[in-house]
């Protein structure tokens, strides 16, 4: 999976995957009796074609074999998505990991699956975008549908709007995509507003909560709990697929949010609870964005693995010293000593009331007004 490497200086550097796997190992997560680590296969062109245009897949192959000939019309060979030899196989392997998760759910070989190398949510059916070549989450969702699953809920907590996944299922009422992200007025890709609600016949199945810059844990979690659980229950999915980009962290340079590891861990716990309550536990979780390679990403995604395997790592847990020493030797910095950021996670529930002077509350209300009535819910009181 380390072959997904645009360049040594590109923000999406695969060392973040290496450091996450090393931290999971040091924490003993990979030794848990109920957890198996499985090598991801390379997705076939036929599998990729279930959500991607054949012409686009051919374009990725071409750039993969001739990286000196970009295809900017397809988003390949751009500043965000530099071309390199082998880009097809590397991207198809990330996709294969999440597809394997869908196969495992369908075969009842697993209840929870994590692919922290996945979460490539900007890739659309016909174009690469935002560091993403193939949309692994969309591929997994389509495989679940093709395998007989009636409804799939996709929850995206990356700082950036999950535009690619939304666009692929825009007209499909069997898939609800919920994205909570920094507003497109201040952050790439510039989309994801409350009035993006889905295509004809699928109105209400695209849900967007576009929070303002500098939103912190309390406001983020208020927004999440004012929208997501209610719509999830009304939609009644059979499987949840979630994207856990951790670039909303206050120490990540690619967004303007102010989240902490504590808040991101809580989001994962909340999604796990929804899967338990609504889907008999069926849940596929992916990674996504996250560009503070040493201090943030490994901790956030190790928490995700721990939660998925049924025993969360307490926030006060000390980061294993061998891992810290490895990071210091590799980067010349000392990462945090604790698995948490010692943040205050209390948030004001929606039932306490709506404050029209609060920009986050206005965001919440904009989404609730657009979507809730379509599911028989009251945007003010439900």
UniProtKB/TrEMBL annotation:
The name this protein goes by in its record: Acetoin utilization protein AcuC
UniProt pathway annotation: Ketone degradation; acetoin degradation
Gene3D superfamilies with a match to the protein in the record: Histone deacetylase domain
Domain Histone deacetylase: 10-306
Pfam families per the UniProt record, alphabetical: Hist_deacetyl
UniProt key word Ribosomal protein: no
Similarity section: Belongs to the histone deacetylase family.
């Amino acid at each position: 999976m380390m072959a997904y490497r645009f360049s040594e200086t590109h923000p999406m550097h695969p060392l973040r995957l290496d450091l996450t796997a090393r931290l999971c190992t040091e924490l003993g997560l990979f030794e848990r009796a109920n957890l198996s680590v499985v090598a991801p296969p390379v997705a076939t062109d036929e599998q990729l074609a279930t959500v991607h245009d054949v012409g686009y897949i051919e374009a990725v192959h071409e750039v993969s074999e001739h990286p000196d000939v970009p295809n900017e019309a397809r988003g390949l060979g751009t500043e965000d998505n530099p071309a390199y030899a082998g880009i097809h196989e590397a991207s198809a392997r990330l996709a294969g990991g999440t597809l394997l998760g869908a196969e495992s759910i369908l075969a009842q070989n697993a209840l929870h699956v994590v692919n922290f190398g996945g979460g490539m949510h900007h890739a659309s059916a016909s174009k690469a975008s935002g560091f993403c070549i193939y949309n692994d989450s969309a591929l997994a969702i389509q495989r679940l549908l093709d395998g007989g699953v009636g409804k799939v809920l996709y929850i995206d907590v990356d700082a950036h709007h999950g535009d690619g996944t939304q666009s692929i299922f825009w007209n499909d009422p069997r898939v609800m995509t919920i994205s909570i992200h920094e507003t497109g007025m201040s952050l790439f890709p510039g989309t994801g507003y409350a009035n993006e609600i889905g295509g004809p016949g699928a109105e209400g199945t695209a849900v967007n909560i576009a929070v303002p810059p500098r939103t912190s844990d309390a406001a983020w979690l208020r927004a999440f709990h004012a929208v997501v659980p209610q719509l999830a229950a009304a939609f009644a999915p059979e499987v949840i697929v979630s994207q856990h980009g951790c670039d909303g962290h206050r120490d990540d340079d690619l967004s303007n949010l102010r989240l902490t590891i504590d808040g991101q861990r809580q989001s994962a716990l909340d999604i796990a609870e929804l899967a338990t309550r609504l889907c008999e536990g069926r849940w596929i979780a992916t990674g996504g964005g996250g560009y503070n390679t040493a201090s943030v990403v490994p901790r956030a995604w190790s928490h995700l693995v721990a939660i998925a395997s049924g025993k969360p790592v307490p926030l006060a847990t000390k980061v294993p010293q061998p891992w810290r020493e490895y990071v210091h030797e590799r980067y010349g910095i000392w990462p945090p000593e604790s698995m948490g950021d010692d943040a205050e996670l209390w948030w004001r529930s929606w039932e306490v009331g709506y404050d029209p002077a609060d920009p986050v509350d206005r965001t919440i209300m904009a989404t609730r007004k657009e979507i809730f009535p379509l599911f028989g819910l009251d945007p003010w009181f439900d």
